[in-house]
Amino acid sequence: MTKKEHVMKVVDESSGLMECLVCGAKHNAVMRPGADGKFLPENWECVNKCKLIHDEKPSAKK
């Protein structure tokens, strides 16, 4: 299983400020209610719909 990479990175956890690794756009994430303090999945997506490009080799046909 591969680790899922996010387009957004957390800049400031206390305020929830996140920045896009592709275009540099910033927005504040909405925190989940409760003690876990995790970000909602949609906060890991850029507001400009940026995507990370991966260099994946196509599987060889047998």
Molecular structure report:
The protein has a 3-stranded antiparallel sheet, with no helix packed on it. It has strands at 8-12, 17-20, 26-28. It is built from no helices and 3 strands. The chain starts with 7 loop residues before the first strand and ends in a 34-residue tail after the last strand. With 62 residues, the protein is mainly β.
Distance between the termini: 23 Å
Mean pLDDT level: 76
Number of helices: 0
Q: What is the spatial order of strands in the main beta sheet?
A: 1-2-3
Helices and strands, in N-to-C order? EEE
- What spatial form do the alpha-carbon principal axes imply? globular
Cα radius of gyration in angstroms? 15 Å
- The total count of strands amounts to 3
What structural class do the secondary elements suggest? mainly beta
Largest sheet: 3 strands, antiparallel
Strand content: 15-25%
Question: Which stretches of 5+ consecutive residues score pLDDT under 50?
Answer: none
Helical content (DSSP H or I, runs of 4+): under 10%
